[in-house]
Amino acid sequence: MAIESSPKARARLALQALTAGPQRSATLGAERDLLSALVWRRVMSRAGRHRPRLADARFSSAFDETPARTPRAGLRSIGSLVEQIRPLALERSPAEPERVNVLLARADREPLRGGHSAAFNLGARLGQRGVRVRIVACDGAREAERPPDRVQRPRAHSGLEAADGRLELIDAADRATVVPVSPRDSFIATTWSTAHIAWEAAQALGRERFLYLIQEYEPLAFAAGGLSMAAEESYRFPHVALFSTEPLRDYFRALRIGVFATEGSAGNGASLSFDDAIAAVDPPTLEELRMRTSRRLLFHCRPEPDATRTMFELGMIGLARAAQAGWLAGWEVNGIGSERPQPPIELAPGVDLVALECAEPQAYVGLLRAHDVGLALLATPHPSLVSLEMASAAMCTVTNSHGVKDRDWLQARSPNLVVAEPTAAAITEAIRVALGRAEEYPTRVAGAGLAWPRSWTDALDDGLIDRVVDLLRRC
Fold first, then answer.
1. Cα(251)–Cα(257) distance, rounded to whole angstroms?
2. Which of 20, 72, 221, 316 is the most exposed place for a label (fewest CB within 10 A)?
3. Residues with Cβ < 8 Å from 170, sequence gap 6 or more?
4. 427: left (phi over 0), alpha (psi -120 to 50) or beta
5. Is 8 inside a domain boundary?
6. DSSP SS3 for 23
C-alpha cells in the first residue's frame, strides 16, 4: 500500500524485484508484477492528460441539464405522471353539439413544429371539411406557467384560421375546467399521455375506441421505467390509428403493436398513414453554390433531457472526431434546435460549435439555405423531418437508420441523405463522406427535389381527411 505515495517504498520494491528470483523469493516474484503495474498506471495517467477529450469541463458545463437531486425528486416525478394522465372533467349534455376533441399535451409551443403542428393542422383540416373540432389543452402545467392566451396563440399559424369558426379551443390543463360534451363526441389522442385521457373520456361516453394520431414510438423517448411503460400501455387501449409516415406504421406492424397486435389484416383496415409536411425551402441554385466562399455545417443540436432520441451525444462525438482529424478545418460549425442559449463548444483547436437560437420559420429556412452539410439524427423508426428539410435545401445530410427506416428507404427519398448506423464510428465516417460531397453541386441541387409534402394541405389532402372521418365514425 505504501508504494502509492512513498518513494522509499517504491525503491525497496524495485530492489526486491531486481534481486529476488521467483524460485528464491517468498512472494514468488510478485514484486515484478507490482512494479510493472505501477509503471503502466503512471504512464497511462500521464498520457491521458494530453489526449483531446470531448467530455471536458467546457462540454459538460455547457449542456449540463441535470436537475438538483433532492429527497423528494422521486415524489415529484410521480406527481408529474399523475397530472399528465389525469382524466378530463366532462359534463355530458344532449344539448351540446357533436364535436371531435383533439387532445394536446402542449398547446403553447411556438413556433408550431413537428408533432404539435400535425395535431393542430389535422384539427384545422377536419374543420375545413365540415367537422366541428375542439382543441383541448390537457398538459397539466402549473397555472403560474400558463399564459392566459396560450391556447389562442397558435391560431395565427398558417392554416388554422381557415376552419370557418369550427375550430374551438379550450384550456383544461388544470382539470378543474369542466369540458361540456355531447354523448356523440369523439376523441383524438396526439401523444401517449393524451391517449390515457382519450380512453377515459371515450369510456365515459360509452365509446368503443378513440383515434390515436401516432407520431412516434414514444417509449423510446424515455429511459426504461414508469414513463416508458405508461407510453407502451397507451397502444393497448382500443383505438384506430393515424400514423405519421409509413415506416412508423411498418414498425408497429412488424412488432405487432397497437392495432397490429392481433393476427391477420385487421390492423391495416384500422389504420392510415401520411407524411408530415416539412418546411418549404427554395434551395440555392447551382450558381449560388458555386459562388460561396465559406463552408458551413448545421447540427440539429438538442441537448435537453426530453430530446434524448435526437442522439445529441453521438452527434457531438462524431463532430469532435471529425474536427480532431482535421476534416472541419476552415468550416463554420453551427447547432440549431436547443430551447435555451448555449455557449460555444470547442470541438478541436480552431473549431467551435456555435449553438444558434431556435429560429422562426422564415429564419429557419434561411439558415438551411446557407449551409452545405447537415447532421440530424433520430433514434426512432420515424424519419427525422429536420434531415429531410436539410436535404431539400441541397445540403449533404447525415442521418441514421433504425429498423424499417433503413438506408434504401431514406436514400430513395433523396440522394443528399448520407445514412449511418446509429454508432459513433458510423456517424463519424458519414460526416467525412458528407464533407467530401459538399462540392458536388449538381448532385446536391438535384437531390433537393425530394418527393415529400411541403404544406399541410398536401400532407392531409382531401382524400386522407375523408378516410380519417370514416375512422372517427368507427370509434
1. 8
2. 72
3. 134, 135, 136, 137, 151, 177, 179
4. alpha
5. no
6. coil
Determine the residue type at 102: V
Q: Are residues 376 and 312 in the same domain?
A: yes
Higher-confidence position of 379 and 44 = 379
Tell me the pLDDT band of 21, cut-offs 50, 70 and 90.
low
Amino acid identity, position 203: Q
Does 25 reside within a domain?
A: no
Residues 290 and 306 in one domain: yes
How far apart are alpha carbons 271 and 468 in whole angstroms? 9
Shared domain for 114 and 240, answered yes or no, is yes
Tally of CA atoms within 13 A in the half-sphere of 195 that contains its CB: 23
- Provide the CATH number for the domain around residue 326: 3.40.50.2000
Distance, in Å, from the CA atom of 184 to the CA atom of 181, rounded to the nearest integer, reads: 8
* pLDDT of amino acid 144: 42
Residue 298 three-state SS: strand
The number of CA neighbours under 13 Å toward the Cβ of 369 is 15
Mean pLDDT of the region 315-328: 97
Query: Residue 64 is placed in which grid cell?
Result: 449540463
- Within-domain flag for 310: yes
Average pLDDT score over residue span 337-356: 89
The CATH number of the domain holding residue 203 is 3.40.50.11090
Same domain, 173 and 301: no
Residues 442 and 461 reside in one and the same domain: no
- The range of the structural domain enclosing residue 427 comes to 286-452
CA distance linking residue 240 with residue 403, whole number of Å: 23
**Helical pair 73-84 and 226-233, crossing angle rounded to 10 deg:** 10
211-269 pLDDT, tens digit each: 999 999 999 988 888 899 999 999 999 999 999 999 999 999 999 999 999 988 899 99
Answer whether 388's CB lies under 8 Å from 413's CB.
yes
Residue 470 three-state SS: helix
Mean predicted lDDT score pLDDT of the chain: 85
- Whether 164 and 200 have beta carbons less than 8 Å apart is answered as no
**In contact, 214 and 246? CB cutoff 8 Å:** no
- Residue position matching grid coordinates 445529441: 312
User: Do 323 and 423 fall into the same domain?
Assistant: yes
- What tens digit of pLDDT does each residue of 284-310 get? 999 999 999 999 999 999 888 888 899
Pull the grid cell for residue 58: 467546457
Cell numbers for 438: 459538399
Residue 189 clears pLDDT 70, i.e. is over it: yes
> Is residue 141 in some structural domain?
yes
Specify the number of domains making up the chain: 2
